[in-house]
Design a protein that fits this description.
mainly beta
Length: 116
């Protein structure tokens, strides 16, 4: 599967951005998808994921209540609405897909910058 992220950019503190990840090469309806992020000099960290059996969403504590992830199986996409952006949120945001069989797939990342 190929994953292509879009929607990153510059937002002010307290502002919003919406990220979208489009999957191609196979349907992802029965697979978990989500997002990680990596700030300069730091390790990649989990942000959010959708558990495919129920559509339940899971979030890192740092973004709980501010970010909202959704998976649109008909479009083979996963999106994440990011509200009330904070100075700790900037980084390269990576989409991932966990197939039922085989390794995790990653997108190339989309940059998020937050200005004060």
């Amino acid at each position: 599967v190929q994953l292509v992220e879009s929607g990153g950019g510059l937002a002010q503190t307290g502002g919003s951005l919406r990220l979208t990840c489009a999957a191609s090469g196979r349907t992802v309806g029965a697979n978990d998808m989500g997002w990680f992020r990596q700030a300069p000099g730091k390790e990649r960290e989990f942000v959010a994921r959708v558990w495919w059996p129920t559509g339940a969403a899971y979030y890192a504590d740092a973004v709980q209540g501010r970010f909202s992830i959704s998976k649109e199986d008909a479009n083979n996409t996963v999106s994440m609405q990011m509200n009330n952006l904070k100075p700790a949120d900037p980084g390269l945001y990576y989409c991932f897909e966990d197939p039922q069989v085989g390794p995790r797939s990653w997108g190339q990342g989309t940059q998020v910058t937050v200005s004060s």
